[in-house]
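cache lookup: miss for this entity combination. No prior model stored, computing from scratch. Input as submitted by user K.M.:
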Amino acid sequence: MCASMFCFLLPATRKVKIFAPNIEQRDVVNHLKGSPADEKRNVLVESARLARGNIQDLAELKVGEFDAVIFPGGFGVAKNLCSWAVDGKNCTINEHVNSTLRAFHSAKKPIGLCCISPVLAAKVFPGCEVTVGQDKNVDGRFPDAETASAIAELGCKHICKDVSESHVDKANKIVTTCAFMCKAPLHEIFDGIGTMVEEVLQLA
Ligand SMILES: *[C@@H]1O[C@H](CO)[C@@H](O)[C@H](O)[C@H]1NC(C)=O
Ligand SMILES: *[C@@H]1O[C@H](CO)[C@@H](O)[C@H](O)[C@H]1NC(C)=O
């Protein structure tokens, strides 16, 4: 999972475009040491590394050109797309992320989110239904299970789902799956994300 990228799908051709906000990263982690490094990086530039350059500034996204949006998730969502990593349910959301979510929602186009990114929907659309897995740390597989209570405190309904499943909020056209919020083998996470993408395409 990446430093904050999004894909948008055109169902007729399944064409995807990737966007990221042009902002500085909250921090840069040296993953060899597992600690923050003393350097600065830009989210769009770092995301371009993963997208092999084929990426655009989120500020330039035109919702009318797309049928759906998917937020891949990752810690970058909680650090850069919003401030959940620091502020929990009191977080602020990047203005372009907020306006993108609201624009797809008001155009009745589906929104797919996985991993920690369902908190974006919980913050922007009070009353919506999302899953980040289980609301209890069942068998030690859901170490961040308290995220489910924070979602409920935002006035949303947390739906408990296993890692291989996704939840569809039909009224809001929001599809969520827990992905790496669950300590599960990669192939189970892959299956769960697959169900989310399939449901998004069905709604598009
Ligand atoms: C959110 O804000 C409330 C009210 O200011 C505060 O009591 C609470 O501790 C904050 N929660 C987090 C996770 O920062
Ligand atoms: C999202 O944008 C709307 C409209 O500008 C604003 O009212 C709302 O507070 C924003 N939500 C968040 C979580 O920043």
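stored under new cache key. The mean pLDDT is 92.
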